[in-house]
């Protein structure tokens, strides 16, 4: 590959790579082998200060440019990403351990989609003209927020960086992005490519580090907005810290989403949905449908077909394009998943597939299925964020909907049925921000994505994200004389 795995430096600030070796060392581990592939350093206060200063200095000029000009740069970056998709995918595979078979189609490409989409939208971002009668009128000016901070999770490092950067930059903001400390490599390439595409220095900066680097960014008074992708506990902390400064927030948090399979569903299609919604990226997807409710009449047929299809999982070297199931991102995440599997067994769920570590280096665990899971079990309530599917049984629609909604989370929900009216009725009843009918986990940039309840605030993607990266200034215009009581 063209890209060396070790980046030129740890951070990307003011249009170039920046190193500060006095920061806490940050080793990058390849999840497929456990080997250290890069030595980086967490951002020091001096690095954070440079990032904030350069972003603030660059933002006003950027916002003053025409949307057409901003959009052109984003679309150029999308083209560069597509041209280099293979190398970027290899890098993403090293960052995350996800199979190249996936990263080639779901990571840099989805980042490019976001840059292309918001690049196309940038020129049409306007306010409104509001006629008020008597010749008076008002208008609104759509303005950038200023400096936005993006904080990422480790499952989709390239995609998350682009899903935040593209709408932020299209609206005229600057962004400082802090990737997850587990997957720091990919976002640096996004920064490099944006500058190559013509983005002025300072508008997209990447600083590395854990929560201790994210926290001062969130509280800095020069920051206007925070967009976090992460877990609910982190979301609570970051939302509270941002609220103290009355900052705008977008919170893309965790879930324990339901997928409801009725007995009239196409069985193979439903099994595909369950596989996509539980085992893609080794189960490390926030919107996964990890509570699979299967109507009693087809439960055993569903489980039998699922077991058959699981034999198609090719677990191995993620760089081998035949591999379709890779390792967990880290030893820590593997440990969490192993503990949940042990808990499921202890709680009396029936282990029907997987459950064991794979006998090879790296952080591998088999795709795992529990049947006879009940709502009160911990494995049915808490987000595991690994390849553990819980299959629960149900009798009728009202019961399925009530149980599907009986969770603090509300990120996603899916339904498989041949009955069209029932599908839409279920979707109307789901307490979830993102729903799927006879499918699961599709996330095109044209469709808003996000959660309700504890799963988040705000939306990413589509035109909806524009409202979260811009604000309206209202202007009342009086055409006749202004009168007063005295
Ligand atoms: P995490 O919450 O541990 O960390 C997320 C990010 O927040 C990291 O970059 C971390 O360094 C940073 N962080 C931690 N404490 C912070 C603080 N006090 N201030 C500022 N930043 C802080 O999550 P994770 O383990 O990296 O990712 C997995 C979680 O992310 C899961 O819960 C998953 O569901 C969720 N997720 C959600 C979406 C979504 O779009 N809804 C997408 C992917 C992942």
Automatic annotation (TrEMBL):
NCBIfam families tied to this protein: BADH, PRK13252.1
Keywords: Metal-binding, NAD, Oxidation, Oxidoreductase, Potassium
Name of the protein in its database record: Betaine-aldehyde dehydrogenase
NAD listed as a keyword: yes
InterPro entries noted in UniProt: Ald_DH/histidinol_DH, Ald_DH_C, Ald_DH_CS_CYS, Ald_DH_CS_GLU, Ald_DH_N, Aldehyde_DH_dom, BADH
Residues of the active site: 252
Enzyme class: oxidoreductase
PANTHER family membership: ALDEHYDE DEHYDROGENASE-RELATED
SUPFAM superfamilies: ALDH-like (SSF53720)
Record keyword Nucleotide-binding present: no
Domain of life: Bacteria
GO BP terms: glycine betaine biosynthetic process from choline
EC nos: 1.2.1.8
Domain Aldehyde dehydrogenase: 20-475
Family per similarity comment: Belongs to the aldehyde dehydrogenase family.
A single GO molecular function term of this UniProt record: metal ion binding
């Amino acid at each position: 590959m063209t890209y060396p795995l070790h980046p030129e430096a740890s951070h990307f600030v003011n249009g170039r790579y920046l190193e500060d070796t006095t920061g806490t060392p940050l080793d990058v581990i390849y999840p497929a082998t456990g080997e250290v592939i890069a030595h980086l350093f967490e951002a020091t206060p001096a690095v954070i200060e440079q990032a904030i200063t350069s972003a603030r200095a660059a933002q006003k000029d950027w916002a003053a440019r025409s949307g057409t000009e901003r959009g052109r740069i984003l679309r150029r970056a999308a083209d560069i990403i597509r041209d280099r998709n293979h190398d970027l995918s290899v890098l993403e595979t090293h960052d995350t351990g996800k199979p190249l078979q996936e990263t080639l189609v779901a990571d840099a490409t989805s980042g490019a989609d976001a840059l292309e989409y918001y690049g196309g939208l940038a020129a049409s971002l306007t306010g409104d003209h509001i006629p008020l009668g008597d010749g008076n009128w008002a208008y609104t000016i759509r303005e950038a927020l200023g400096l936005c901070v993006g904080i990422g999770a480790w499952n989709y490092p390239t995609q998350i960086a682009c899903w935040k950067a593209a709408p932020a930059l299209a609206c005229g903001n600057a962004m400082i992005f802090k990737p997850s400390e587990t997957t720091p490599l990919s976002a640096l390439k996004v920064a490099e490519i944006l500058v190559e595409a013509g983005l002025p220095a300072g508008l997209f900066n990447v600083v590395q580090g854990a929560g201790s680097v994210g926290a001062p960014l969130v509280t800095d008074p020069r920051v206007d907005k925070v967009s976090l992708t992460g877990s609910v506990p982190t979301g609570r902390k970051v939302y509270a810290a941002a609220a103290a400064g009355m900052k705008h927030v977008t919170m893309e948090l965790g879930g324990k989403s339901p997928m409801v399979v009725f007995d009239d569903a196409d069985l193979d299609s439903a099994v595909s949905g369950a596989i996509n919604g539980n085992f893609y990226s080794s189960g490390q997807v926030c919107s996964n449908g990890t509570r699979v409710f299967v109507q009693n009449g087809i439960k055993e047929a569903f489980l039998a077909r699922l077991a058959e299809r699981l034999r198609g999982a090719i677990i191995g070297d993620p760089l081998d394009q035949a591999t379709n199931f890779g390792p967990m991102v880290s030893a820590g995440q593997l440990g969490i998943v192993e503990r949940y599997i042990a808990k499921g067994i202890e709680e009396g769920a029936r282990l029907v597939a997987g459950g064991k570590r794979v006998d090879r280096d790296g952080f591998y665990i088999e795709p795992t299925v529990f049947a006879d899971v009940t709502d009160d079990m911990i494995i049915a309530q808490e987000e595991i964020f690994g390849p553990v599917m819980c299959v629960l049984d149900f009798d009728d629609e009202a019961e399925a909907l009530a149980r599907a909604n009986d969770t603090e989370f509300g990120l996603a929900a899916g339904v498989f049925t041949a009955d069209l009216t029932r599908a839409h009725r279920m979707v109307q009843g789901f307490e979830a921000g993102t729903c799927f009918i006879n499918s699961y986990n599709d996330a095109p940039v044209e469709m808003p994505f996000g959660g309700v309840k504890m799963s988040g605030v705000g939306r990413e993607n589509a035109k909806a994200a524009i409202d979260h990266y811009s604000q309206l200034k209202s202007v009342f215009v009086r055409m006749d004389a202004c009168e007063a009581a005295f």
